[in-house]
Amino acid sequence: MDSDDEIPTLVTADVDDALALPPVVTSSSPRQSGVPLTIISGFLGAGKSTLLRRILTERHGYRIAVIMNEFGDTANIEAKAINVSSADDPTAEKSEEFLELANGCLCCSIKDAGVAAIEKLMERKGAFDHILLETTGLADPGPIAAMFWKNEEYGSGLGHDILLDGVVIVVDAVYGKQQMEEDNSVDGIGESIRQIACADVIILNKVDLVSKEQLHELEGLIRTVNASAPIHRTVRAELDLKHIMNIGAFNTARPIDQAIQPVSSHDHDHDHERNGDDHQHDTPPTHYELRGISSLRVSVPVLSAERLDRLDEWIRTLLWENRLPEKGDGSDGQSSMKVLRCKGLFVTEKGEQYVLQGVQSLYDLSPVEGTETTGVPDVGKLVLIGKGLTEEVRNSVEKILAL
Ligand SMILES: Nc1nc2c(ncn2[C@@H]2O[C@H](COP(=O)(O)OP(=O)(O)OP(=O)(O)O)[C@@H](O)[C@H]2O)c(=O)[nH]1
């Protein structure tokens, strides 16, 4: 196929109910309806293609559009070849711009006009159950996630039809530690650390090649940057797709227990036996730091309406102006603070729950519907991941919550 205009009809696969993915959790907001999109990124050589190849060739019964793209730099997008072999379709060996696969997936390698090409795909949105967008090993997924989430520029087109589902990062168990420690971009924060910071789910791949001590050490390092994303240990990226698809990581209407992932060091569903895991769980510290990027967790007491407003304003100032409210207007432009990702769960005196989701400077603070069925906790939480998030930040928010 030689033109972006020609998008093939998808092969319809038989959907096996037993393999059904969990339903997408949608809110009443019209902006939260659409085809879910998962951004897959990860360290160089970590196993992104291995994961995508599995999804493209395994029989899972879902029609998934997989988009491989040098998306980080739209001015110079390069197609990335992936060799997909399918038992049902030997001709699928070739890499083409659009590749229909017998398992119902559509594989796209977009050479130009990335957003326009996705829009064309979206014209066929009824044909997809899910979109997976792979970014390069060097891309910072934060701006890409922000683009697909609540970006008014795309409100009447692309963004309207796509529901950002989550950011999945594949980390190499062998070289991950070295990559994180040595990675260094212009401002000192390497892309691998930005990727971890932005992750909703982390796939720690190639665990067959390292000892459990090395795994614990790397997981500890990952936790210094992102204390809330679940880590799934894998061999050849083998994991249940429910861990990476339809996770609703940006959905502020999700039930309470999914709003903030617990700080678990790894996947509890598997691998303990295979890797001889001794199942250690440490009490999570509340502040971590690696190369200036840190993860800060703050407990938030039950809030009056007034305090919730104050908290909202505090968050807005931090996210939009990269400063603490008490620190002036930051007009020198030299702020050392930057929130890359934030999540929160707040409880009001009236028993309502609010979920906070944010990526880069975009955020959404919305009440959760139907909380009566899930119970109301007696304390809320705020998780901030980003640069310059010192204890001063915690003190600042605690101060406004005590007023
Ligand atoms: N032993 C072992 N090898 C693996 C595993 N997963 C992937 N590999 C191998 O590691 C190499 C790199 O895997 P890819 O899937 O190509 O990695 P990638 O992230 O797509 O690489 P880039 O796109 O170049 O960044 C390949 O040779 C894989 O076969 C694993 O769990 N264990």
UniProtKB/TrEMBL annotation:
Reactions catalysed, as given in the entry: GTP + H2O = GDP + phosphate + H(+)
GO CC annotation, single: cytoplasm
Domain CobW C-terminal: 335-392
UniProt keyword Transcription, yes or no: no
Any one Gene Ontology molecular-function term assigned to this protein's record: GTP binding
Biased composition (Basic and acidic residues): 265-286
Spans annotated as Disordered: 262-286
All copies of domain CobW/HypB/UreG nucleotide-binding, residue ranges: 36-232
Entry keywords, A to Z: Chaperone, GTP-binding, Hydrolase, Nucleotide-binding, Zinc
InterPro entries: CobW-likC_sf (IPR036627), CobW-like_C (IPR011629), CobW/HypB/UreG_nucleotide-bd (IPR003495), P-loop_NTPase (IPR027417), Zinc-reg_GTPase_activator (IPR051316)
Family: Belongs to the SIMIBI class G3E GTPase family. ZNG1 subfamily.
The protein's name: CobW domain-containing protein
Organism of derivation: Coniophora puteana (strain RWD-64-598) (Brown rot fungus)
